[in-house]
Structures are given as structure tokens and as C-alpha cells.
Amino acid sequence: KPRVIAVVNQKGGVGKTTTAINLGTALAATGRRVLLIDLDPQGNASTGLGVDKAARQPGSYGVLIGRAGFGEAMVPTPVPNLFLVPANRDLSGAEIELVDAERRAHRLREAIETFTSFSVSEHDGAAPARGFDYVLIDCPPSLTLLTLNALVAADSLLVPLQCEFLALDGLSELLHTVDVVKANFNPRLKIQGIVLTMFDNRNRLSSQVAADVRAHFGAQVYETMIPRNVRVSEAPSFGVPVLLYDISCAGSQAYAHLASELLKRENAE
Amino acid sequence: KPRVIAVVNQKGGVGKTTTAINLGTALAATGRRVLLIDLDPQGNASTGLGVDKAARQPGSYGVLIGRAGFGEAMVPTPVPNLFLVPANRDLSGAEIELVDAERRAHRLREAIETFTSFSVSEHDGAAPARGFDYVLIDCPPSLTLLTLNALVAADSLLVPLQCEFLALDGLSELLHTVDVVKANFNPRLKIQGIVLTMFDNRNRLSSQVAADVRAHFGAQVYETMIPRNVRVSEAPSFGVPVLLYDISCAGSQAYAHLASELLKRENAE
Ligand SMILES: Nc1ncnc2c1ncn2[C@@H]1O[C@H](COP(=O)(O)OP(=O)(O)OP(=O)(O)O)[C@@H](O)[C@H]1O
Ligand SMILES: Nc1ncnc2c1ncn2[C@@H]1O[C@H](COP(=O)(O)OP(=O)(O)OP(=O)(O)O)[C@@H](O)[C@H]1O
Ligand SMILES: [Mg+2]
Ligand SMILES: [Mg+2]
Fold it and tell me: CB–CB of B105/B148 below 8 Å?
């Protein structure tokens, strides 16, 4: 059974997609088989991995509404061992479409459970025969039904936190939502960790926010910080993760460290 | 009747709140009376204007579900002539609560129309007796019922666009949504303009994105660009707009220019 990690923060632009793509790539580079689910109707993870807008059917929308399984929906990416379930526009309709549906918060979880128990036979060989080690879910910047599906499906959540004052504002709300989900839907859900992103050591505010978060959340905060690094924001325009675009840049190095820190934490459990 | 402008972009972290607060402040500084409506459950505009979390009842949620009028919901801010309808957590429930309600997309518009026709008598003198010149609406990073309410209520929309590749990805979707709203709900809706934010002239990607956007959207793009400027991101931690925090910094100057460019465009109509 794969470890399912939801990459979540309702604050916009904090590095969720960038973290999902590059952490996924770094984990895949260690030989682990990774499935990335793009659950954001913007489809930025799909763009960042070079999947054309016309090639995003049935996508995560098809899986959520039960029209397709993962085997059919997943596509290969430029990274060996990393597969993607892309997102398209239809996903923004899922919210309203599923309002009256049975177990509407559990759709993703049930789809993952069905897939991982039958995965050897279901797909055409493009995907790894022996199943996945990690499933990462890139969430939209909101706490609605899509993110709820991710939290119900997840074993744990990874929270990218931009080193900015406004980013702190919503953290307590996110943690409250996690408690509600844990109590009502998914008792196994826990916080994998908080990762500080776009850290700029020339900027006093950045260091202050980082210090505040560490003081408040202690060991839940990864030691690895992701620096602000322009190469990271250039990579999506080439449809590849920064680890493929420029392995030696500070951003790539940080995501490689983050992956090894995550694996250390997982093994320690 | 006030001009109603929605500040919208479903891409997260592009500067919607920062633009709504600081454009509102700059317009208020010219003596115009401005009402800022915080329509994001995160409540970042309320935080950025120093309104305590405990003082956000009934807020924009109360107005949307019809429990309060603007007169009761609005609060003064540190800026003369700028008033705020704050946002609180309840707002994230509005989506589901209004699913079966009558005219659920028109709630905000009807509330603004009711308020502006009776505004002299309704409030206790804290707000301007002669009504408002501008209403700005800060939207959440999504295209759901809250943003739909803003687009139905608005005369025009202002689109902050971060000078990043991924920010371009969702622009066509936003413009498609605007066409749908115009056709089905609000025929008067038009694009006030696109404003380039967090522009960094040392960064090739930033200049490239800016050039692309201008080539594609021409005169719809404001000449004024908002530079990336750390003073802008420090101001919210003091609960004041950057124009009050540090009037001489590049960010403040840019927002002052943006206000005068907006007024010029309005007068030219
Ligand atoms: N470490 C970094 N250094 C520089 N730029 C970065 C970094 N991480 C992310 N970015 C850029 O910042 C922007 C926001 O990042 P990203 O889109 O990953 O955030 P997000 O949280 O997924 O946004 P949304 O809330 O819209 O889903 C993107 O343009 C991205 O390329
Ligand atoms: N010109 C600027 N220079 C530097 N930092 C900026 C600038 N504009 C905004 N910021 C910072 O960038 C972050 C994102 O901006 P902001 O919160 O206004 O975006 P938003 O689009 O409202 O985000 P959301 O999608 O979460 O509502 C904030 O921390 C803000 O302080
Ligand atoms: Mg994203
Ligand atoms: Mg905002």
C-alpha cells in the first residue's frame, strides 16, 4: 500500500504545486514509484510536467466522478518512476456535481484503494507493475470538497508555508480543519510536516517568519528550507521539474534534501 | 451610485489582497469614499487593515446570507475615507449554505444596491453620509460562488497578474469565466484592466512574462507595474497599508500611480 501525502495550504501561491512536482521528482529519483494527483482545476502541476491541455482527459475529474480508474487516467511524465493524474477544467464543476452524491468526501480515497489493490492488471504497462510507493496530491488554494477529498484520502499532509506574514494568518484555520477531518472522516490523518518555502535570507521578514514558525511548531517543521530561487520559477515554462531543468541550483538541492529528510522521518516511525 | 470593481484571479498569491488594500487606500487619499469588501474566508484584507479576528462579525458572510446590511457590517480602518466589510471563517460555509438559495449568485449585488439607495439613513455616522464613490471586492483564489457573487455585483474587474510563468496558465480560464458571467448574469461586466505585480527587473522571466502579457492584451494592461518590494509584504504585519507604513517606498509609489491611472481611464470612458 502506498503512502498518501496531501500537499495542502488554502493560502494561495505558497509553493504547493512546486513542492508536489519537485518532491515527487526527488522521491522518484531514489527509485521509488510515485503517483502525483493534480487536484487543482488550474492544472498547474500538469503544466509544470509538460502535459498538454488537450491530453488531460479523463483526469482527476474522471476519477472523482467515477467515470475512470487511475490506470486509465494516469499518464507518464518526463521523470522516470513519476506518473501523473492530470487536472482539467471540468474539475471545478465537481464541487457542485457531487453536492448530493453518496460519500462525496470519500471518492478519491475509494478510488485509490480500488486502484492499489488491483493495480497489477488494470493498466497497459505504462505504469509500474508493482504499484506505487508514494501518492502525492497537489491541492487547490481552498478548503472545499476537492481538498477535503485529499485530506480524507491521505495518511498525512505536507504544508508548504511561504515565509511571509500573511501566510501565517491561515495556518491556524488549516490546522483546525485537519482536526475536524481527523475527528469525522479520517482518524489516521496526521501532519507529515511544515516546509518553509521561498525563504530569502537577505530579507528580515523572511527570517522572522521562519523563526516564529519553528518556535511555534518545533519538530513539525522540516529542517530543510526551500530558498527563493529564480530557476525554480523558470522550470515550469519548459514543462519539467527544476531537478531536471537545473540540478545544481539551490532550489533543486533543497528539494533533494527535503526528499531525504522526508524518507528519514518515515523510517523513524 | 458607486463604481464596483472586483479584484479577481483564481491563481493564488498574485497580489489580489495587496492590490485591493493599497489601491483602495490610494483612491481614499484622493478624497474619494471607498468601501472594501473582504470576500475571502482567509480574511487577509481584514488582517492587512488591522481588524481583529474577534471584530469581524457579522462581516461579508452576514451580508451574503441576508442577516445584516452593509451599514451594520462595515467598520472604519486606519485610513480616512476607507471602510471595510471584514471576512471571517463563516464565509467558507456560505458556498454550501447557499446551494439551494434563491438568486444565490446575486446576493452581493442586491445587498450593494439596497445599501447604496438608502445609505444616508442606515448607518450611525461612522460611514460617509453621502455614500461611496468606489466599492472594491477582494476575492478568494477560486472561481466558485463567492467570486461569482463579486463578478455579478461588479461593473468591472481588475486582474492582478504576477510576473511568473504559472500565473499565465489560468488567465484564459478567468477570461472565459468572465464571458460566461457577462452572457448569463451581468451584461455590463467589463475588464477594468490587468495589473502586473511583483515585477522584478533583475529577473529575465519577469520581463518576459510582462512583455508577453502586453503583446497579448495591449491597452488592457495598465502601464503602472507593481515592483516586488519587501516593504509591501512587511506592512500587513503592522495592520496598515504600505502607503501608511512607508509612503516613499517603490511599492507605495506604484500603487499611487495605479490609482491615478485608474481614475484617468474611468474619466476617459
Ligand atoms: N522556491 C521558489 N523560488 C522562486 N519561485 C518559486 C519558488 N517556489 C515557487 N515559486 C513560484 O512562485 C509561484 C507560486 O508557486 P506555486 O504555484 O507552486 O504555489 P501554489 O501554492 O501551488 O499556488 P496556488 O495557490 O495558486 O495553487 C509560481 O510562479 C512558482 O513558480
Ligand atoms: N509588490 C509586492 N512585493 C513584495 N511582496 C508582495 C507584493 N505584493 C504582494 N506581496 C506579498 O506576496 C504575498 C501574496 O500576496 P497577496 O496575499 O496579496 O496575494 P493574493 O492574490 O491576495 O493571495 P491569495 O490567492 O491567497 O488570496 C503576500 O505575502 C504579500 O505580502
Ligand atoms: Mg498550485
Ligand atoms: Mg488574497
Answer: yes
Average pLDDT over residues A127-154: 90
Q: Which of A233, A234, A246 to mutate to test the interface with B (most CBs of B within 10 A)?
A: A233
Q: What is the length of chain A?
A: 269
CA distances from A90 to A84, A94, A196 (A): 17, 7, 32
Confidence of residue B100 (pLDDT cuts 50, 70, 90): confident
| Atom of ligand 2 at shortest range from CA of B19 | 18
Residue A208, min C-alpha distance to chain B (Å): 11
Going across the sheet that includes A3-7, the strands are A75-76, A82-85, A34-38, A134-138, A3-7, A156-162, A190-197
Q: Count Cα atoms within 13 angstroms, Cβ side, for A230.
A: 10
Ligand in closest contact with the CA of B16: 2
Taking the Cβ of residue A223 and every Cβ of chain B, the question of whether any pair is shorter than 8 Å is answered with: no
**Residue position matching grid coordinates 490523518:** A189
Nearest CA to ligand 1 atom 3: A228
H or E segment to which residue A249 belongs:
none
Q: What is the pLDDT of residue A120?
A: 46
Report the alpha-carbon angle A40-A42-A43, nearest 5: 75
Separation CA A156–CA A64 (nearest Å): 20
A166 → closest Cβ in B44, B164, B230: B44
The residue-averaged pLDDT of B24-29 equals 98
Best of B8, B10, B18, B200 for a ligand 2 pocket test (most atoms within 8 Å of beta carbon): B18
Partners of A99 on chain B (C-beta within 8 Å) are 96, 99
Measure Cα distances from B188 to A41, B89, B151, B155 in Å: 27, 31, 10, 6
Q: Can you tell me the distance from the alpha carbon of B177 to that of B190, in angstroms, rounded to the nearest whole number?
A: 12
Q: In what order do the strands lie in the sheet with B190-197?
A: B75-76, B82-85, B34-38, B134-138, B3-7, B156-162, B190-197
Average pLDDT over residues A100-129: 74
Residues of B (235-254) whose Cβ lies below 8 Å from A: 236-237
For helices A250-268 and A16-29, the axis angle rounded to 10 degrees is: 70
Instruction: Residue B55: count other Cβ atoms within 10 Å of its Cβ.
Output: 12
Q: Give the phi and the psi of residue A102 in degrees, each rounded to 5.
A: -65, 140
Q: Closest approach of chain A CAs to the CA of B4, in angstroms?
A: 24
Instruction: Check if A149 contacts B (Cβ < 8 Å).
Output: no
**Using one digit for the tens of pLDDT, what is the confidence trace for B76-95?**
999 999 999 999 989 988 88
Residues of A in contact with B89 (CB under 8 A): 173
Do residues B262 and B156 lie in contact, with contact meaning Cβ atoms separated by under 8 Å?
no
Give CA–CA dist B56/B39, Å, rounded. 12
